[in-house]
Amino acid sequence: MKTSLAIFLLFIFSLPLFPGEKEETVKAPNIEIAQWMQGEIKAEKGKTFYEGKTLVLEFWATWCGPCRRIIPHMNELVEKFACDSVVFLSLTSEKKDVVKKFMEKHLMKARVALDNNGSTFEAYGISGIPQMFLIDKKGNIQWGGHPAMFSEEALKKFLSTGNIDLPEE
User: Fold this and answer.
1) Domain total for the chain?
2) Which of 36, 81, 116, 130 has the most CB atoms at less than 10 Å from its CB?
3) Residue 17: how many CB atoms within 10 A of its CB?
4) Is 14 inside any structural domain?
């Protein structure tokens, strides 16, 4: 079974059957970083670099027009919410020299890293970009969709209540 289909099915079968039923959590797949381009975080042995933090994970590419157009929105979110407990990571599967040249011309305030041979893109079932996931402090996926749908208000509510009011994509 293809990974993206498996994640989709896992998500569908984790939805509640009846209103008010407790939703099952979906553990976020591992994030394999080949190299940090900006804002490296050193992980403690046996832990993820975002363990105990809220992670806003964006999948993007330098050649992607919608990805480029979403950078100002991402920069605003980073300015307002980045702190010790909230990490913004923009992950690409492109080559280092391509990303470096792009970042010299385009200000990105999120942490930026290179995917390890596309393994994280595959693990998350990414077939189109940009794509974003909100991962809670316990490492569970709380939301996934297009970054333009991810609002400041929704993130503020999530950080204060643990609930997210955004449509799934």
Assistant:
1) 1
2) 130
3) 6
4) no
131 touches 59 (CB < 8 A): yes
Please report, for the domain that includes residue 90, its CATH number: 3.40.30.10
In angstroms, what CA-CA distances link 18 with 14, 21, 22, 34, 44? 12, 6, 9, 42, 40
> pLDDT tens digits for 37-77?
999 998 888 888 999 999 999 999 999 999 999 999 999 99
**H or E segment to which residue 31 belongs:** none
Domain that holds residue 63: 33-41+52-161
146 residue type, one letter: H
Q: CA 52: distance to chain centroid? A: 15
User: Between β-strands 54-59 and 111-115, what pairing exists: parallel, antiparallel or unpaired?
Assistant: unpaired
Nearest to 55 by CA among 169, 140, 136, 158: 136
